[in-house]
């Protein structure tokens, strides 16, 4: 499943199709005619008809649709849920592969000291 919309969803769906993987898209009512919906083998509407973007952030609804339709992995694209630790963790809890960094890696990267990033060279103006 691609938990995103637009060009990024199309690119992920195209790559998955080339690998002969079954593809699933989600879309909002606003995106019902968007190309990414038609590039997937299956597509499911999420959210209410008057809510164009917020449903792409609804972790529980996305997971419900994924589980209901036998999705094994979710690619978040970029933006929306791509750096959401809670989403990556919920995918793991539901037995769905999150295509991206582990929740632990995301947490470390949010902490510049813990991630090993070296600021000292830049702080000195070198």
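Sequence proposed for the structure above (126 residues):
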């Amino acid at each position: 499943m691609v938990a995103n919309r637009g060009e990024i969803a199309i690119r992920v769906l195209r790559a998955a199709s080339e690998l002969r993987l079954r593809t699933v898209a989600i879309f909002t009512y606003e995106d019902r005619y968007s190309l990414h919906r038609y590039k997937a083998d299956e597509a499911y509407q999420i959210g209410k008809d008057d809510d164009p973007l917020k449903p792409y952030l609804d972790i529980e609804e996305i997971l419900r649709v994924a589980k209901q339709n036998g999705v094994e992995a979710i690619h978040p694209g970029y933006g929306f849920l791509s750096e959401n630790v809670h989403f990556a963790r919920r995918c793991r809890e539901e037995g769905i592969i999150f295509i991206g960094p582990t929740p632990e890696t995301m947490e470390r990267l949010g902490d510049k000291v813990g991630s090993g990033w070296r600021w000292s060279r830049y702080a000195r103006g070198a």
